[in-house]
Design brief:
Elements (H helix, E strand, L loop, with lengths): L16 H17 L4 E2 L5 E3 H5 L6 H4 L4 E3 L5 E4 L4 H11 L5 E10 L11 E10 L4 H18 L4 E7 L3 H16 L7 H9 L1 H4 L8 H5 L10 H16 L5 E2 L11 E9 L8 E7 L3 H4 L7 E7 H11 L11 E5 L4 H12 L4 E3 L6 H10 L4 E5 L1 H6 L1 E6 L15 E4 L3 H9 L1
Helix pairs in contact: 1-5, 5-10
The structure holds histidyl-adenosine monophosphate.
Length: 425
Amino acid sequence: MPEFQTSPGMRDILPPESARWRRFVEVFADVVERAGYGQVMPPLLEDLGVFQRIGDATDVVTKEMYDFVDKGGRHIALRPELTASVCRSYVQHRPQAPWKVWYSGSMFRYEKPQRGRYRQFDQVGIEVLGADDPNLDVEVIALGWEFYRALGLEQVHLLLNSLGEPDDRTRYVEALRVHFESHIDALSPESRTTLAKNPLRVLDSKREQDAPLIASAPRIAEFHSERAASHFAAVRAGLDAISIPYAIESKLVRGLDYYRHTTFEFQGGTLDSAQNALGGGGRYDGLVESLGGPSTPGVGFALGLDRTLIACDDEGVFGAPSQAVDVFVVDTAGGSAALSITTELRAHGIRVDRAFENRSMKSQMKAADRSGATIAVIVGSNELEAGTVVVRPLRVATHDHDDTAAGQSAVLRTELLDHLKKALQ
Ligand code: HAM
């Protein structure tokens, strides 16, 4: 075993998987930029205080943060998510509202690694700051939905809830506390600990022992103010109007403390329940204020790239794009012809690779096959002298022929570019 390996929960993404990651972000950018979102690129590190605003009752803040004191004595953290960073950025730059932005990149959470759960993972997401309109919640959810469609995923389920206004939420949390405390003996020891910190999160417990108490717990809808109820009704009506299917999930509280009103989650139908959240989001009116800005509504989501690709594998969609080149140059006459040919062809947009180290013809032809090229351009000392090259089609059915020579032709070096352009059309 090598002396150094990636740390737990961190992975090298190698080609061709890395090309798939880049394509994922390109498809996302395409979907959201068509809806008027511009890319924001906050730093990987922020003052720890920025992320503490996510809420000090959340695991993300209390247990999972990668934080340290830098050489200047600042207490900083690697971002566990980007919503707080985007709000900090909004307060710092005061762009015109509504500010519609998208992002992509790595997040860091010190979690227990398992399939679909890593310590460094990637998200793509959008945030809209400065507009309090239920139609915007609908737009945000619809863009997430459209993105999954663009990937080809079909087994994605949208769960929807509303946590109401801050007062509704406070009254609800209190009612939950009373409910669970009055049956505390029936609660699992883990959930008792959660209850002391954040009664809402008890609803997230997947333990069998907690199920009956969770089922009999009060529902948030009973605590919705008139305004919260009408906002939620408008969101549902908007989703109905554009035929996006959803299920109301009154126990959907999500892991972050800043949510108000609409919350939602996209669940993957093929994944284990512990990691089936492909993405999620909601409204977080109040977060900008807590970061020192003016009272500003906000809504957005983040989708986990790592997990969504697992779902794509499960459904057999959105595979890694081909990285094959078009042409492979085999040069057994020293390599100078390969240098000039690859340079010329690349300058004209042809994808071309070559062999190095002056290997034998056989070994270079093997490399040509591995490259996925459809055409080999072959130069030996005879061709070099005659000012020609041999163009040989690869990957053709050659059962009936001597495959070393099937369909190959000699082409003048000066006519190679035109010849290949036609052949590759
Ligand atoms: P979140 O639910 O914490 O929300 O994360 C969003 C998605 O990131 C999850 O659904 C999951 O797919 C992925 N994810 C989270 N943790 C991990 C992990 N350890 N390994 C792999 N994937 C993971 C947020 O981050 C909010 N900022 C979303 C939001 C944006 N709300 C409003 N705007």
